Amino acid sequence: MPGIPANFGALRIWCRPGALARRRAGILMRLLAGIGGGYTLAALFTMTLSIGLPLPRSEAVLTATMASFAIYAAAIVWAFAAPGVLRAWAGLPAVAVALALALALLQGRSP
């Protein structure tokens, strides 16, 4: 194709200075948000669901643990699907706060 150099490493010359560094930093920030935020969400979800399910304790913990794998994967997908890095970082803590409030309410109820 005309206009595309044979050496794709030469594409860096076409970018503005610092654009490659900003892109890499954005990917790193999304990766950190997905891994850290996903782990936090999965842990909070497991605790909340294991207390909230009306099952025997062992079955509730097993069910909540299995479901937490889907939550963790969804959090990583959200971190990379969010329109911006700030929205990825803001979306995960918002859900974590909601789960923490639900956990606090469930712990306060009488068994």
UniProtKB/TrEMBL annotation:
The chain crosses the membrane at residues 27-53, 60-80, 86-106. Keywords: Membrane, Transmembrane, Transmembrane helix. This is DUF3649 domain-containing protein.
